[in-house]
Every structure is written in structure tokens, then in C-alpha cells.
């Protein structure tokens, strides 16, 4: 990988490849094995950031269903939920001036 950003296994072998290429099938544990081999610090950072929301708060209930998360947040009084994007309308069908 001359640029240092190759993601796939083609870039993980030496050039020229060893005789018979691989003596056994490599075990694939990632979508980007070559990148993770060259940049382990980035891999650790990406795994750590999976547990943080876009607001910077930790995700405690990451494996809960969304409906369970909404119910839990509503019970705690911290949920806001928008059900539709339509503006409120008056009885005559025109948008409300609020």
C-alpha cells in the first residue's frame, strides 16, 4: 500500500507476495483489516467513540430497542418526540400563524 490507507486484505500482504500466498486462510475480524493493522490508535478511538452520542454524552442503553429508550426517557421526563412535521392548522385549513 504505497499511500498507507488501503483497507482490504490485498494491501495487507507483502509485495511480492510470499510463495503460495497464505499457508492457511486468514481469519477476518474486521471490514478494514489492513487499515487497523497500520493504525491501531485510530481503531481504539473508533471503538471508544461508538459509545458516545452526537451530543457528547455516553450511550448507556445502546442495545435497547428505540421504543424502550423513548419509554425510559419519557418516564424520566427528558424526552421530546415529534410525531409529524406538519404545521398546526386552524379549522379553516390554513396554517396557524404561531
TrEMBL record:
Q: Which InterPro entries match?
A: Cyt_c_oxase-like_su1_sf
Biased composition of type Basic and acidic residues is found at 86-98
Give the Gene3D superfamilies listed for this entry: Cytochrome c oxidase-like, subunit I domain
**Disordered, as annotated region:** 76-98
Spell out the protein name for this chain: Cytochrome ubiquinol oxidase subunit I
**What's the source species for this entry?**
Thermocrispum agreste
Amino acid at each position: 500500500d504505497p499511500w498507507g490507507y488501503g483497507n482490504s486484505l490485498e494491501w495487507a500482504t507483502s509485495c511480492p507476495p510470499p510463495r503460495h500466498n497464505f499457508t492457511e486462510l486468514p481469519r477476518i475480524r474486521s471490514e478494514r483489516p489492513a487499515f487497523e493493522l497500520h493504525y491501531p490508535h485510530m481503531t481504539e478511538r473508533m471503538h471508544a467513540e461508538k459509545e458516545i452520542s452526537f451530543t457528547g454524552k455516553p450511550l448507556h442503553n445502546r442495545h435497547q430497542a428505540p421504543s424502550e429508550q423513548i419509554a425510559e426517557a419519557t418516564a424520566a421526563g427528558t424526552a421530546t418526540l415529534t410525531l409529524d412535521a406538519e404545521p398546526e392548522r386552524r379549522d379553516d385549513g390554513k396554517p396557524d400563524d404561531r
